[in-house]
Amino acid sequence: MKFAVIGASRGIGRKVVEEALERGHEVRALSRHITAQDISGDGLTALDGDATNATDVANVIEGVDAVILTLGVPKDMRVLKATTLFSDATRTLIAAMEDAGIKRLITVTGFGAGDSKDKLSTPERLTQKAILGGAYADKDLQEQLIRDSDLDWTIARPGILSDNRKSNAYKVLVEKETWRNGLINRADVADFLVTAAENNSHIDQTPALQR
Q: Do the beta carbons of residue 105 and residue 152 sit within 8 Å?
């Protein structure tokens, strides 16, 4: 398959690129300065660009089978700083996918976004609001934009992220009554995202990912 990965130079996005290339897929990867990173591999096309720029996004998704959106929270957005990055990028991407006739979108928000907020404990909710309140307010809007689109979407909500090796032992919790916050490796999140794209699974679902 051919994937576009937006937000590809670090964190989950980079793990997605590595996982997809390891499985033999072609990857078109977009990030602001990705060509300056030590990221390479057969089948990779790396493009410097802005996830909120319509031309950059149209270029990276050209000819792909699925788009994986993995924007992380920059350090300067933390501690209550408001942002529109996630909603702006998502509006741009949805419009570009509709213009290009691409239907499959898999994205990452986080546990505590959307209706998963109801499953946070009071200390977890207060901590998330204090540290990432601005980002998660925009992630809520991002999720609603995706839900309101005509795309075949999956929204993955991982818990607390670590950089341990891929375990292949994580849980995909689809039903709301099973959701819980917990730890998960970025490599396992990437494994889920690539597998969901390959299998066209979890369409119109918001699974929580936990170890």
A: yes
